[in-house]
Amino acid sequence: MSQLNGAYYGPSIPPPPKSYRRPSRGGGGCGCLSCCCGCIFNCIISLICKILTTVLIIAAVLAFLFWLVVRPNVLKFHVSDASLTRFAFSNNTLHYNLALNVSIRNPNRRVGVYYDQIEALALYEDVRFASQTLGPFFQHTKNTTFISPLFEGQRVTPLTGDQASQFDKENSARVFSIDVKLFMTVRFKFLFFKSHTVRPKIRCEMNVPLKSRNATTSPDAAFKATECDWDYKRWWIR
C-alpha cells in the first residue's frame, strides 16, 4: 500500500489509439453533389407550384370578369299550347295527331344562340312513338322564339300490360300524359366569339286533353301551359 501512495518512476503510459474511419464511396451521407441535386429539385417543385397557383388565380379572375360582363342566364322552354286530336291504340299500333307550340326564351342581353339542329321526340309511358327534326335558326338577345313540332301518323308501339292498362285509364279520362324531349345542337355567340357545339336535352312532361272531332274541349279539360326541365346529366361538348 505504501508503494501505491508514492511516486511512480516506471515507463510512460501510451495514449489511447485514435480510431480512423475511411469515408465510404457509396451514397451514404450528404455529399456536395447530393446537396446540390436536392436544392435544384426543391427549387423546381417550388417554381411549378408558384406557376400553377398563378395560372389558377388568373383563370379565376378572368372567369369572374367574364361572368360580370356577360351575366349569362339559362334558356327557358315552355309548351304554350298542345292540340291532340287523335290518340288511339289497337293491335299494338298507336295512331296519333299531336301539334305543339313551344316557346324558347333567351333572357341574355349579350349572348345570342345558334340552334344548328333540334330533334323533337314524342313519348308515351317512356316509349317513343314519333320524332321530327326542325331546321336551324339564330336567336337574338332578349328574344322569344316559337317552334311548332307536329307529330302525325301511326306507329307500331308495343306496350306492356301495365302500360296498356294506364292507356285505358287515360283514354277514359280523355287526358293523356305525353312527354316531349328536345335534343339540341347549339352554339353561343358573344360579340365576335362563338362557343363550341353544345348538346343539351330538354324534357317536357305534359297532360294533354284529347279534343273532340269538332276541336272543342270543356274549360276543365283545356291544356295548361307547361314549363320544361333541363336534363343536366346529358350535357356534353363536341
TrEMBL record:
Residues 1-11 have a biased composition (Low complexity). One of its GO terms (biological process) is defense response to other organism. It holds the Pfam family LEA_2. Keywords: Membrane, Transmembrane, Transmembrane helix. Signal peptide: none annotated. It is a single-pass membrane protein. Residues 1-20 are annotated as: Disordered. The chain crosses the membrane at residues 51-70. The keyword Membrane applies. It is found in: Membrane. Residues 102-204 form the Late embryogenesis abundant protein LEA-2 subgroup domain. The keyword Membrane applies. GO terms for cellular component: plasma membrane; plasmodesma. This is Late embryogenesis abundant protein LEA-2 subgroup domain-containing protein. The lineage of its organism: Eukaryota, Viridiplantae, Streptophyta, Embryophyta, Tracheophyta.
